[in-house]
Amino acid sequence: MSAPAALGLPTRYDGDPDRVALVVPGVGYSPARPLLHFAGSVLLRHGWTVQELWWQIPDGFREFTEERRIAWVERQVAEGGACRLLVGKSLASFAAGLVADRALAAAWLTPVLTVDPVVRALRRTPAPTLLIGGSADKLWDRDLADSTGHPLLELPAADHGLELPDDPLGSVDLLREAVTRLDSFVGGLNG
Fold it and tell me: Does the model's pTM come out above 0.85?
């Protein structure tokens, strides 16, 4: 394990040093939240070293231009360290261009498909890529997801957190489905 994060939580879990996966949060969705927590567990189960990225969104971020937001996310990801696989939630998908340029495998959990540079980057990436989104998520677009040519999982009625409003048990079932698909994706990667 590496140095602890500000809250005393570890940020790195050691596995194969040649297979490092970077787990990247969303705006308010840290690596401790269920999708990313279990993503880390899946990666560890398959022998990957897991590096969690924890960030503090800068003041005024909502007023940033699209280009400035993308640049900020790409800088955070680049500073997260060398990796061969990225698992990112929502805002993390703003680094899709960087990931495509580096030909990194990626699993995008609720990617922001309403931002054209994200979709263009997903379409051009040569590496194995998985997209997971919910049909009730306003930032997800099934047709655009299909247009990338990558495998995807769309969870019916799931929101941007891949949850069902007012249905915690149904949300747990969706979490299981997302984690199962992620497990299959990671297991299919060649070291």
Answer: yes
Q: How far apart are CA 49 and CA 51, in angstroms?
A: 7
Q: Is 141 helix (H, G, I), strand (E, B) or coil?
A: coil
Phi and psi angles of residue 17, each rounded to the nearest 5 degrees, phi first = -65, -15
pLDDT in tens, 101-144: 999 999 999 999 999 999 999 999 999 999 999 999 999 999 99
Number of Cβ within 10 Å of residue 165's Cβ equals 12
Residues 6 or more apart from 64 whose CB is under 8 A from it?
58, 72
CA distance 161 to 156: 13
What's the whole-number mean pLDDT along residues 75-81?
A: 92
Q: Whose structure tokens read 């394990």?
A: 1
The amino acid sitting at 142 is: R
